[in-house]
Amino acid sequence: MIRKEMIAMLLAGGQGSRLGVLTSKVAKPAVSFGGKYRIIDFPLSNCINSGVDTVGVLTQYQPLRLNTHIGIGIPWDLDRNIGGVSVLPPYEKSSNSEWYTGTANAIYQNIDYMESFNPEYVLILSGDHIYKMDYEVMLDFHKANNAEVTIAVMPVPVEEASRFGIIITDENRKIQDFEEKPANPRSNLASMGIYIFNWKTLRESLIAMAEQPKLDFGKHVIPYCHEKGQPLYAYEFNGYWKDVGTLSSYWEANMELIDIVPEFNLYEEYWKIYTKSESLPPQYVSEDSVIERSIIGEGTDIYGKVYNSVIGCGVTIGKDTVVRDSIIMNNTTIEAGCEINKAIIAENVTISSGVQLGVGEEAENDTAPHIYNNGLVTIGEKSVIPKGIQVGKNTVISGVTTAEDYENSTLASGKSLIKAGE
After folding, report:
1. Is 302 in a helix, a strand, or coil?
2. What tens digit of pLDDT does each residue of 297-320 get?
3. What is the pTM of this model?
């Protein structure tokens, strides 16, 4: 029988609803990041850099682009005869079929897949964080403490601790207690949603808790292991880690990449981030154009001016267009004479000439202020904005829009324009 020391299960089914129109047609882990990457490239690259060569990717919501991106795992060297990467959607079973209802339920439905590798350890990961982490170091810590479960934790400022699942440990990092988003936290160690389980322990606890609705690691499985008196340990991680679950955190994480000395370096030799890359021609930069502090993807043509921005692959930025503090994803065209301020523009968008985005005073968004805020303009994929339109801040546009959709050629700050069928 095949035996793998540690396999990874990567939860990539999330809808990412706090990313608004960016995830209306694509799963959050497949959203572009840093120009040519997608969010899922980070945990996949961490796996292969850590020597974990068997990864099950659990998909559910809008999986097409994710599946196409992962393929058979060639960019991450995960095209193996034994192990490698497997995409695991929910599937029809003879007795009952169900969607994945919680993080641990998704893992439970794939017990047979894990069993086939007879692993000693199972690493559980989330597909929507940006970070570099050597899981082998965490496994060494797990073994050294004879732990049954090890949870990766990160110190957070005490004033922010109430936003996280908080873990209380003794001086040896043995876990004493948990608090989910506590009002008065007793510790500042936040769970990162990264776990190493001994396979026997994981299997037994999933089967024991299988009937729980929306079976979840933080709420059900880990407390169950703790109540049974199994040794649980917290592994402290002190590197860069970003949850890019909101538009403003997604925008900030991209902007941090273009700092003169970025806190998170995409290009380190010894810890590469791998991605599926098309073979594209190099960037074309016209003699009149200006580029400052920006990332520009391959196959992109720049005739205008770009400041502090992250530009994907195959993008065109027209003459006399100025782009500032923005993220523009692959294959988007911005025609001549536009002004783009603090915008997140998804893939395959067309912005016609003379459009101004992010102008005027801020106003609270009228449909989803908890999503569209921080002064950003968000444009969903395949959208079209006609010539000469002015768009305010905290706005969202999705769909093929025409001049008739805008009153006086304007979408005021705080307004949403989402065409039916989008």
Report:
1. strand
2. 999 999 999 999 999 999 999 999
3. 0.88
